[in-house]
Design goal:
With 722 residues, chain A is an all-alpha fold. Chain A contains 27 helices and 2 strands. The longest helix of chain A has 75 residues, at 623-697. Chain B has 2 domains: 1-280, no CATH class; 282-523, no CATH class. Chain B has helices at residues 3-19, 26-50, 88-105, 113-132, 136-157, 162-189, 203-207, 219-236, 245-252, 255-280, 282-287, 289-309, 313-332, 337-368, 393-396, 398-411, 418-433, 435-460, 476-494, 497-520, and strands spanning 65-73, 78-84. The chains are: A mainly alpha (722), B mainly alpha (523).
Chain lengths: 722, 523
C-alpha cells in the first residue's frame, strides 16, 4: 500500500474515531469533547495539505493517481471490490472538505456554545466529515453510493438537530426523502451499469463503455439515472425543494453541508462519470443545470430570510456547475465547485455571525417575536460587525463574479464554456440565456442582501441595536480564512483567466470513452478492432450506429470538451463571456444599489407591477404546494387504500371464510344431531319395535310354541302345494 | 453424535428439568432456561466456527456437515437425518442467538412463568429441528412442533385479542402445513431409495430427479406439487395476500415471541422454498420463478405502503417485515449469485434488525403500556384521540432513542449497516433477470424511508408531552438483549464476508442445481 493511500486512510478514519468517542463519552469529556473532533479534522487538514503540496503541486502531473483496493464481497463468480482512488480531483476535494470542515468546526465552538447537545453536534460533524471523504475517495459507484447515503444521514441528523422545533424535524425528513427519490435513480443507474459492464469501479466502467459493452441509448439512460442522484443531492430542479428548508439546521451546518460540500457531491459525481456521458445525456444535464440556475435565482430575489437567500443562491450556483459539466466545461464546473465552497461557506458563516448578533440583541431586550433572520429587521450592521461585513463583502463579490475574486475566474470559465457550446450548437441558445440571466440576478440579490443587512438604518427594535456585538474570535477567524481563499491569487496568477493557474493545468477534462464522441483515430482503431473480432452482422450494426451518432455529432459539433481543436473559438467565446458577465454583474449591483441603498427604485412598486411573477418568486413558484397536493397526497392515499384493502378485503375475506365455516359447521352439527343421528335413532327404534313384536312370541309356554310350530308347518305345506 | 442433535434436544432436556422445578421459583426457572438456551448458543457458535464453507450440501449427503443419519421408524423407512450446509447454518446460528436473547426479553413475564418457558424451549427445539432436518417426515414433525407452542405463547401470554390472533395464526399455518403434508406423501410414494428400493422420506433422494417416479414427472402434477409446497411456505413468509395473520399475531404476541416470530419463523417460509421446492422441483421452480419475483415485488411495495398507513408502532414493524421479506423473494428468484446470496443474507440480517425493532417496541410498551404512534379515533380517553402517542422521547430516553434510530436506519437499508449489503445484493442480482420487477421494487426504498422517518419523528422528535416525563431510559437487561444485535448489524455492514462466505458455495451450487434441473427438463 503506497504511503499516500495510508495517509488518505488516516485522514478518513480520524473523524470516524472522533465520532465514536464523541457519541459514547463526549458528554463526560471536558469542554464537551469539542477538541477531539477539532484535532481530528485539523490533523486531516494538515495531511491533506501535505498531499496537495508535495504530491499534486510538486509533481504537476495531471494524471497523478494512487489506487488501492481490496475484495469486499466475494460470491463465487461475483465480487465487489472496495478501494481508494487518490487522484488530483480527489485531493482537491479533500482540500475543500477539510478546509471548510475544519473552519466550520472552529466556528461551531463559538456558535454552538451552551447548546445542551454540544458534544453530539461535534459527533455528527465528525461523522459527516468521514462520510464525505469516503464519498470523495471512493473508487467505485457503489462506494460513492455508500458515502452518498451516509452524508444524507448526517444531513438529516443535523438539519433536525434542534428537533424540538417541528419545522426542523419536518425539514430533516423532507431532505432525506427528497434525496431518496434521487437515490432511487442513482441505484437503478448502478444496477444498469453493473449488469452491462460487470463492475462498478469507475475505471472498470469506463473500460466497459469504451469496449462497447454499454452504449447508445442504454448508456444515456444509465448516466441520466446516475444524474438523478445528483439532482437530489445537489438540489437541482425538480428536487431542489429540500435545500431551503434545510436551513432549519444550525448555521455552521448550512455552511458545511448545505453549501460547500455535501450538496456539491452531486456535481462531483457527475464530474466523475463525465467520461461516459453521451452527447444526449450531457445536453440534458446542461439543461437541468441551466434551468435550475435561473429558477433558483428568481426565487432568491424575493426572499427576506437571509439564510434562504443564500440557500437559493446555492441551488443556483450548483446549477451553474452542473450546466458547466453538461456543456463539457468540465474543468470550469469543478473549479466553480472549489471556489464556491470557499466563498459560500464564508457567506453562510457570515450570515450566522449576523444572526448571532441579532439574536443577542433581541434576546437582550427580551424580544422573542422579531425574526432574527429576516433582513427587513436588519440594517446598518456594518459598523457593529466590521469583520463580518468585510469578509461577507469579499465573498459576495466573488459570488457575483467581480474580477480579482475566485468566483470571477470560475464563473466566467463556465459562462465561456456555455457560450462556446451555444455557438457550436445554436439550437441550445437557451443555455447562455439561463447563465447570463442568472448572473444578473445573482449580483442583484447578493447586493440586496448586503445593502439590507449592513447599510442604512437598523430597522429592528431600536433598543436591540446597541447589543449586536461582533462575534468571538473562534467565529471570525474562519470568516477571514475563507474570505481570503476567495481571492484569485490562490487559484491563478492571472486575475482574468484561470488558464495559467494550477487548477486548469492539473485538472484537465478527461477523455470521453463514449464511442459516439469524435475522438479521431482512437475511436476508429477500436471500431476496426471490432470489425475483426465481432461477428459480421454485429459489427455492421455497430458501425452503423457509430456512424449515425458520428453524423449527429458532426452536425451539432458535439460535446464541448472535445473542442481542443477549436482553441481559437474558445478564446473568443471566453472573452465575449467575460465582458457580458462583468456587465451583467455590474447591472445587478447597480439596480440593487438604486433600490436598496439609494431607495430610488421602489421595490414595492415593482412587486405590484410584476404581479403574478413576483408572487411566484416570493412563493418559490409553489413547488412545495404542488408536491404536497400531488405526489405526497397520492402516496398517502395509496397507503390508505392498501391498508383498507388489507383490513376490509383480505382480512374480511378470511374472517368471513371463518364465519361461513363456523355457520356451515353449526348447520352440519344440527344435521348431525337431527338427521344423521335421527336416522340412527330411527333405525334403532324400528329394530326396537320389531323386538317388541317379536317379544310377544317369546311367552315361555310350550303349548304356544307347539301351536305356532304347527301353524308354520301348515303354512309351509300350503305354499308348497300351491 | 452431531452437535446439531444436541442443539435440537438440549431445550427438551431443559423442559424436563423445568418440570421438576416448583412453579413459584420464577428466577430459577428463568435462569435454567437461560442456561439451556445459552448452551445451545455456545454449541452453535462452536459449530459455526468449525463449519467448512467450501462444502456445498443441498442434494448430496457428502456436502453436508455435522450429519446424524440413523433409522427412526423402519416400517416406513423414516430416518433421523440431520445435517447443516451453507443454507441452514446461518439460520441455525440466528435461531440460537435470538432464542438466548429472548429469554432475557421474557424476564418480565409473570403469568404462568413455568409454562411460558417450557413452551419457549419447545419452540426452540422445533425451530432448530426444522432447520437441520433432512428427512422430509422429520422436517414435517419439527415444523408442526413449532406451531403448537407458538399457538399457546400467543394465545395465553398475548395481548387483549390474543385468542383471535392465536387461532388465526394456527389455522392459517396449519392449512399450509396440510398442503405440504399432501406433497410429502406424494413424494414419499413416488420416490424410491436407490439401495433398498423402498419408499423413502430422504429429502436428498427426493431431489435426485432420477429417483422420482413417473407419476411425479407429469407437468400438471409438478405444478400442483409446487404450489402445494409454495402456498404452505408462502403463508409463513408471509406472502401477500396470505399475510394478514402476521400483523395480528405480532400485535398480540408478547415481545419475545414477536422477536422469534419475525426473526426466525418467517424465514422458515423462504428457507423451505430454497431447501425443498428449488432442488426437488427445479424445472417447475424455473417455470414459476417470475411468479416468485412478481410476488416479491408486490410484498415490497404493498408492505411498505401498508406500513406507511399504520398508527400502531408494532403493526408498522410487522408490515415492514412483509416488505423486507419481499426482497428475499425477489433475490432468490433471480438465480444469480448476487441474488440468491443476497436473499439468504437478507434473511439473516432481517432476523437481526427486526428482532431489534420488536425488542425496542417492547421496551416502550413495558413503560408506557401503549405503542400508538397516533392514538386511534376510538381511544377510550377522548381528549387523546388523534393525538401523537409519544413525541420528544429523544430528550427523555436518549439511549433508547439512539438505539431505536440505529435499528430503524438498518431497516431502511442505510449503508454501513448489514441490511444495506443484503438488499443491494438482492437487487443487483435480481436486476438482470427481472428488470421491471426490480425497478418497481427499488422504488420501495423511498416509501420505506417515508414510513421510518415519519415514525422517528412522531416518536422521538418534537416536544415531550408531560405525561411521559416519568419514563425511564433503557435498563441494563434490555441493553444486554440489544447490543449484540447492534454489534452484528454494524459489523456485517462493514465486513459482510464472514457470513456471505459461509453460504456462497452452497447457494451458488443450489443455483446450478436448479438451472441444470430445469435444462434437463427441456426448459
Amino acid at each position: 500500500m503506497p504511503t499516500e493511500i495510508l495517509l488518505a486512510i488516516i485522514v478518513l478514519l480520524l473523524p470516524l474515531a472522533a465520532f465514536a468517542v464523541q457519541i459514547f463519552i463526549g458528554k463526560r469529556l471536558p469542554r464537551g469533547g469539542d477538541w477531539v473532533s477539532l484535532s481530528a479534522i485539523f490533523a486531516g487538514l494538515g495531511i491533506s495539505t501535505y498531499l496537495f503540496v508535495t504530491r499534486m503541486l510538486a509533481s504537476g502531473d495531471p494524471d497523478l493517481s494512487y489506487h488501492w483496493s481490496a475484495r469486499w464481497i466475494e460470491l463465487g463468480p461475483f465480487h465487489i471490490d472496495a478501494g481508494i482512488n487518490l487522484d488530483n480531483m480527489c485531493i482537491v476535494m479533500l482540500m475543500v472538505v477539510t478546509i471548510v470542515s475544519a473552519f466550520v468546526h472552529l466556528y461551531s465552538v463559538g456558535y454552538m456554545k451552551g447548546d445542551p447537545r454540544y458534544s453530539r453536534f461535534f459527533a455528527f460533524l465528525s461523522l459527516f466529515s468521514f462520510s464525505m471523504m469516503e464519498l470523495v475517495m471512493a473508487d467505485s459507484l457503489i462506494l460513492i453510493y455508500v458515502g452518498w447515503e451516509l452524508v444524507g444521514l448526517c444531513s438529516y441528523l443535523l438539519i433536525g438537530f434542534w428537533y424540538e422545533k417541528d419545522s426542523a424535524a419536518d425539514a430533516g425528513k423532507k431532505a432525506f426523502i427528497t434525496n431518496r427519490i434521487g437515490d432511487f435513480g442513482f441505484f437503478i443507474g448502478i444496477l444498469i451499469i453493473l449488469t452491462y459492464t460487470g463492475t462498478t469501479t469507475l475505471s472498470g466502467v469506463f473500460e466497459g463503455v469504451a469496449a462497447g459493452k454499454l452504449s447508445g441509448s442504454m448508456l444515456t439512460i444509465a448516466s441520466l439515472c446516475l444524474f438523478a442522484g445528483a439532482i437530489g443531492k445537489s438540489a437541482q430542479f425538480p428536487l431542489h425543494v429540500w435545500l431551503p428548508d434545510a436551513m432549519e439546521g444550525p448555521t455552521p451546518v448550512s455552511a458545511l453541508i448545505h453549501a460547500a460540500t455535501m450538496v456539491a457531491a452531486g456535481v462531483y459525481m457527475t464530474a466523475r462519470i463525465f467520461p461516459m456521458l453521451t452527447p444526449d445525456a450531457a445536453v440534458i444535464i446542461a439543461l437541468f443545470g441551466g434551468f435550475t440556475a435561473l429558477l433558483a435565482a428568481t426565487i432568491a430575489v424575493a426572499q427576506n430570510d437571509i439564510k434562504r437567500v443564500l440557500a437559493y443562491s446555492t441551488i443556483s450556483q450548483l446549477g451553474y456547475m452542473v450546466m458547466g459539466i453538461g456543456v463539457g466545461a468540465y474543468t470550469a464546473g469543478f473549479f466553480h465547485l472549489t471556489t464556491h465552497a470557499m466563498f459560500k461557506a464564508c457567506l453562510f458563516l457570515c450570515s450566522g455571525s449576523v444572526i448571532h448578533a441579532m439574536q443577542h440583541g433581541l434576546h437582550h431586550i427580551g424580544d422573542h417575536k422579531t425574526e432574527p433572520q429576516d433582513m427587513r429587521n436588519m440594517g446598518g450592521l456594518r459598523s457593529k460587525l466590521p469583520i463580518t461585513f468585510w469578509t461577507m463583502l469579499i465573498a459576495t463579490l466573488a459570488l457575483s463574479g467581480i474580477p480579482l475574486t475566485s468566483g470571477f475566474l470560475s464563473k466566467d470559465a463556465i459562462l465561456g464554456g456555455v457560450l462556446q457550446y451555444a455557438i457550436e450548437n445554436p439550437a441550445w441558445f437557451i443555455l447562455p440565456v439561463f447563465g447570463f440571466g442568472a448572473a444578473i440576478l445573482t449580483a442583484f440579490y447578493m447586493f440586496r442582501l448586503i445593502f439590507l443587512t449592513f447599510f442604512g438604518k437598523f430597522r429592528g427594535p431600536q433598543e436591540a441595536e446597541a447589543h449586536t456585538p461582533e462575534s468571538p474570535k473562534t467565529m471570525t477567524i474562519p470568516l477571514i480564512v475563507l474570505a481570503t481563499l476567495s481571492i484569485f491569487i490562490f487559484y491563478s496568477p492571472n486575475p482574468v483567466s484561470p488558464e495559467s493557474g494550477w487548477f486548469a493545468k492539473l485538472l484537465p477534462a478527461p477523455e470521453s470513452v463514449v464511442h459516439a464522441a469524435p475522438q479521431g483515430a482512437v475511436v476508429h482503431d477500436e471500431i476496426a478492432e471490432k470489425h475483426v473480432d465481432a461477428p459480421a452482422e454485429e459489427a455492421v450494426l455497430h458501425h452503423e450506429t457509430t456512424e449515425a451518432s458520428h453524423r449527429e455529432i458532426v452536425s451539432e459539433q458535439g460535446h464541448g470538451h472535445e473542442a481542443a481543436a477549436h482553441h481559437g473559438d474558445d478564446h473568443t467565446a471566453h472573452s465575449i463571456a467575460m465582458v457580458i458577465s462583468i456587465i451583467a454583474a455590474l447591472t445587478g449591483i447597480f439596480v440593487a444599489y438604486q433600490t436598496y441603498y439609494k431607495w430610488k427604485i421602489s421595490a414595492a412598486a415593482w412587486q405590484r407591477r410584476l404581479g403574478i411573477l413576483y408572487r411566484g418568486m416570493f412563493n418559490k413558484w409553489w413547488f412545495d404546494e404542488l408536491y404536497h397536493a400531488t405526489v405526497i397526497a397520492l402516496m398517502l392515499l395509496i397507503a390508505r387504500i392498501f391498508a383498507w384493502i388489507d383490513k376490509y378485503i383480505i382480512d374480511a375475506f378470511l374472517d368471513n371464510t371463518a364465519k361461513v365455516t363456523a355457520i356451515y359447521a353449526s348447520v352440519q352439527g344440527w344435521f348431525d344431531d337431527h338427521v344423521v343421528d335421527g336416522l340412527v335413532n330411527l333405525s334403532a327404534w324400528i329394530i326396537d319395535q320389531f323386538g317388541a313384536i317379536a317379544r310377544r312370541f317369546q311367552t315361555g309356554r310350550y303349548q304356544n310354541y307347539v301351536w305356532i310350530t304347527a301353524a308354520v308347518v301348515v303354512l309351509v305345506l300350503i305354499f308348497q302345494i300351491f | 453424535m452431531s452437535p446439531l442433535t444436541y442443539m435440537t434436544f438440549l431445550p427438551v432436556v431443559g423442559i424436563v428439568i423445568l418440570l421438576f422445578i416448583p412453579r413459584d421459583r420464577h428466577n430459577l426457572i428463568r435462569w435454567t432456561s437461560a442456561f439451556f438456551t445459552g448452551l445451545v448458543l455456545i454449541i452453535g457458535a462452536v459449530t459455526w466456527v468449525n463449519f467448512d464453507p467450501s462444502k456445498t450440501g443441498i442434494n448430496q449427503e457428502g456436502g453436508f456437515q455435522f450429519i446424524d443419519h440413523v433409522s427412526w421408524i423402519p416400517a416406513f423407512n423414516i430416518e433421523y437425518f440431520v445435517g447443516a450446509d451453507g443454507l441452514s447454518m446461518p439460520m441455525i446460528g440466528l435461531t440460537a442467538l435470538l432464542c438466548f436473547l429472548c429469554i432475557f426479553a421474557s424476564w418480565g413475564i409473570t403469568k404462568a412463568v413455568k409454562g411460558y418457558f417450557i413452551m419457549f424451549l419447545l419452540l426452540e427445539a422445533g425451530m432448530i429441528g426444522t432447520f437441520v432436518a433432512l428427512d422430509f417426515f422429520l422436517f414435517y414433525v419439527f415444523w408442526e412442533i413449532m406451531l403448537l407452542p407458538m399457538y399457546f405463547l400467543i394465545g395465553v401470554w398475548g395481548g387483549p385479542r390474543r385468542e383471535y390472533a392465536a387461532i388465526k395464526f394456527f389455522l392459517y399455518t396449519f392449512f399450509g402445513s396440510l398442503l405440504m403434508l399432501l406433497v410429502i406423501i406424494a413424494f414419499y410414494l413416488n420416490t424410491r431409495d436407490p439401495v433398498t428400493g423402498a419408499h423413502t422420506f430422504n429429502m436428498l433422494d427426493m431431489m435426485n430427479q432420477g429417483l422420482q417416479g413417473d407419476w411425479l414427472k407429469g407437468g400438471t402434477v409438478r405444478t400442483l406439487m409446487f404450489f402445494g409446497l409454495f402456498i404452505g411456505f408462502a403463508i409463513k413468509i408471509p406472502m401477500v395476500p396470505f399475510h394478514t395473520w402476521l400483523p395480528d399475531a405480532h400485535v398480540e404476541a408478547p415481545t419475545a415471541i414477536s422477536v422469534i416470530l419475525a426473526g426466525v419463523l418467517l424465514k422458515m417460509g423462504t428457507y423451505g422454498i430454497l431447501r425443498i421446492s428449488y432442488p426437488m422441483l427445479p424445472d417447475t421452480t424455473m417455470q414459476f420463478a417470475w411468479f416468485i419475483a412478481f410476488m416479491g415485488m408486490v410484498n415490497i411495495i404493498y408492505g411498505a405502503f401498508c406500513a406507511l398507513a399504520q398508527k400502531d408502532l408494532k403493526k408498522l414493524v410487522a408490515y415492514s417485515s412483509i416488505s423486507h421479506m419481499g426482497i428475499v423473494m425477489l433475490g432468490m428468484a433471480s438465480f444469480t449469485p448476487a441474488g440468491i446470496n443476497g436473499a439468504v443474507f437478507q434473511m439473516f440480517n432481517h432476523g437481526c434488525v427486526t428482532a431489534m425493532l420488536f425488542l425496542l417496541v417492547g421496551v416502550i410498551y413495558d413503560r408506557a403500556h401503549h405503542r400508538f404512534l397516533v392514538y386511534p379515533k376510538d381511544y377510550p380517553e377522548v381528549e387523546l384521540r388523534g393525538k401523537l402517542g409519544f413525541g420528544g422521547l429523544a430528550n427523555q430516553m436518549p439511549v433508547y432513542s439512539g438505539i431505536f434510530a440505529l435499528a430503524f436506519f438498518a431497516a431502511m437499508g442505510l449503508p454501513g449497516l448489514s441490511a444495506f449489503i443484503s438488499e443491494a445484493l438482492s437487487f443487483v442480482g435480481a436486476f438482470p433477470t427481472w428488470q421491471t420487477f426490480t425497478i418497481i421494487s427499488v422504488f420501495g426504498i423511498i416509501i420505506t424511508a417515508g414510513y421510518i422517518l415519519w415514525a422517528i419523528q412522531r416518536m422521538f422528535l418534537g416536544t415531550l408531552p408531560d405525561r411521559w416525563k416519568t419514563l425511564s431510559d433503557i435498563n441494563g437487561r434490555e441493553l444486554f438483549t440489544l447490543i449484540p444485535l447492534a454489534a452484528i448489524i454494524i459489523f456485517l455492514g462493514v465486513f459482510p464476508q464472514p457470513v456471505l462466505h459461509m453460504m456462497d458455495a452452497t447457494l451458488n451450487y443450489l443455483n446450478e442445481v436448479v438451472m441444470l434441473g430445469a435444462r434437463a427438463a427441456g426448459m
